[in-house]
């Protein structure tokens, strides 16, 4: 996998974890990114913004069913 695709996946995974923490613990969903170069930030943000409500609900259903969110198909 190319590094750009990895950053997109990282952003997506970070958003999913933030959304799950929000639903379970009430933790605010805040965009944070460790990358400094604008191109890398944009790639990470593309993944972050690519998470839909359906993705979040599916992940929550999997967690409640004792399944790992890593088994959820990621785009």
Question: Helices and strands, in N-to-C order?
Answer: HHH
Low-confidence stretches: none
Helicity level, as a percent range?
55-70%
Question: Could you say which overall geometry the principal axes of the C-alpha atoms support?
Answer: globular
Please give the number of β-strands: 0
Strand content: under 5%
In this structure, how is the largest beta sheet organized? none
Please state the CA-atom Rg, rounded to the nearest Å: 13 Å
- Based on secondary structure, the structural category is mainly alpha
Considering the chains and any ligands shown, give keywords for the structure.
75 residues, mainly alpha, globular
Task: Describe it.
There is one protein chain. This protein is an all-alpha fold and 75 residues long. The chain contains three helices and no strands. The relative contact order is 0.20. The chain has one domain (3-71). It is 63% helix and 0% strand. The chain has helices at 3-25, 38-49, 53-64.
Architecture blueprint of SSEs:
Blueprint: H1 3-25, H2 38-49, H3 53-64
Helix pairs in contact: 1-2, 1-3
Describe this structure in a few short sentences.
The protein is mainly α and about 80 residues long.
């Amino acid at each position: 996998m190319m590094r750009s695709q990895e950053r997109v996946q990282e952003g997506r995974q970070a958003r999913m974890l933030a959304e799950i923490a929000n639903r379970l613990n009430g933790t605010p969903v805040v965009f944070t990114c460790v990358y400094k170069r604008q191109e890398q930030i944009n790639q990470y943000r593309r993944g972050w913004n690519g998470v839909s409500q359906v993705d979040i609900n599916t992940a929550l259903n999997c967690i409640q069913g004792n399944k790992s969110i890593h088994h959820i198909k990621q785009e």
